[in-house]
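Weekend entry, working from home. Most of the wet-lab plans are on hold until the incubator is repaired, so I used the time to fold the two sequences that have been sitting in the queue since the last round of cloning. Logging both here for the record. First:
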Amino acid sequence: MAFPNTRMRRLRVSGSMRRLVRETTVTVNNLVYPLFVRKGNRIKEPIKSMADCFHFSPDTIVKEAEDIAKLGIPAVLLFGLPDKKDKTGSEAWSEDGAVQDAVRRIKKAVPELIVITDVCLCAYTSTGHCGVIKDAQIDNDATCELLAKISLSHAQAGADIVAPSDMMDGRVKAIREALEANSFKDVAIMSYSAKFASAFYGPFRDAAESAPDASTGLTDRKTYQMDPANARQALAEIALDIEEGADIVMVKPALPYLDIIANARRRFDCPIAAYNVSGEYMMVCSAAQAGLVDKDAAMLEILTAIKRAGADIIITYFAKKMAQSSSKFV
């Protein structure tokens, strides 16, 4: 009996052949690098919970932004840490806030670099929650008003894209209306549309000093971030954000939700971002440090999987290493 005509291994016989028929390729153009900025001067402090990541002050972040641009990475995503916190997170929309200062400096020094700003209250509130608390619950509508103020302050500083990560209902509409009313019609919104209540945010919460305060009566963020079990609801959230004016939608985290990315890609035509979050990043870093995995190979495999699922944009702490790396599938 003759062997079947189809031998799938014919297209795997060499590195050149595999490159020739490769379906998915991650390039530097797909990457966004997250950065943490806090008020002060001459600050570049390692973040203990996140390998090769730092807290910067607005003056030192400029050099980092210049280096990122030289690597060809098209965008950064800024997260801010305040000097003081209060119940409403008022420093988040301060003209003198760390993010606002950093945006102005980066856009002056590296105007071609896209600056995306995270829009949320968790790092700014004394409660560590993403919204204003009233009667042991998040006041959704009052929070949306503050998110619009934050977004407007970022746009006034020069942000190219604002990225609400709070998961309040209607916040994209509130932000879009505030931007339009103040002549910032060209500022884009990248919405964290399907942000799940995940176990993979731990290192980030340490870096952003944004762990929820249990004494508020809300011990976690499950009343506003999504239930990890719900896929159809994720698509409904994305559809609502697009209807309200989002230009880019995001799924966060990436790896446990590749199915959500893939389903969103099949259904929606707008750009889709995925966040390769801190816990996913540190699992690879920790395993590599223990000699259990090849860090470069694992990085490439993960980023390829995220793009293969359908993400156009990948926010990742691996962005600089990916841009610098000669690692590739062979």
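Second, folded right after the first finished:
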Amino acid sequence: MTSPDTGPTAPLVVAVHGGQMGTQLLDGVRAALPGVTVIEAGTPEATRAEVLATLADDAGGITGALTPGIRWVHVLGAGIDGFPLAVVGDRVLTCSRGAAAPAIAEFVLAAMLAFEKQLPHVWITEPPTRWSIASLGGLEGRTLGIVGLGSIGTEVARRALAFDMHVVAVRRSTRPAPLPGVALTGDLGELLASSDHVVVSAPATDRTEHLIGAAALARMKPGAHLINVARGSLVDQDALVAALDHGRLARATLDVVEPEPLPTGHPLYGHDRVRLSPHVSWSSPRTLRRTMGLFVENVYRYRDGQELLGAVDLKEGY
């Protein structure tokens, strides 16, 4: 048995820091790795572990769980904002990038369809004043702008293309578009000005904080629909409320906000142009299976000295 850096090793031991999930996460990892010793982080036995599986929601607990023997840390989630990157050192850090992308992409398509088809307002509970008459929109021929073309953005684009939408995306890297039919632009303002729907799916870093601020919102096409499924920090919420109040935007669908949860009385609650959900776009039975499945595959890759999936660039922060 080998690891990427140390050659032959003793039988692999994995420590699990459950964070807000507690022992539920520990039990899940044990069930997924029946041939591997899985123990709870923070216990005396955890000093034998060279792998740590964790959520990214408890920086203090993660720091305490990083014993000297840990060589590889895997975050059981796609986002690592909140993870204490400064304490990683020379360890390998990976995450379950892409595991939730299909579910989130479906959520985005549902949000766009709800906007265009005026759902749920089109449903009736009594005879309407007019029957068989409406002014509904559609996705065919609309332009979708995607801010951040990683795994989530790619899955959104795949589904949007199936609806015959025009898809344009902006990404930081110079890699070509992952799908035919996706036009890349280096100009965020140009994308915002031409898009009927804008999906924010970029990672949360210092560079992307308030990427969609007052100036960007002013560039958006009048009557456009903004959807944020990335992190709340990417959108200046005060500027967004102002843009909505002034009628610049027709709607904002927000599955992520800052902070989470929003305090009672926040103007995004109950705003007639806002559709707010409590960070659930990832939710799907398959998401949980994919998340654990990626970690299990990485465990065997680590054991066999192979390159790990979902590697995090510590300098870039994602």
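Plan for Monday: verify the second prediction. Helices lie at 23-32, 59-65, 101-116, 151-162, 188-194, 214-219, 237-245, 285-303.
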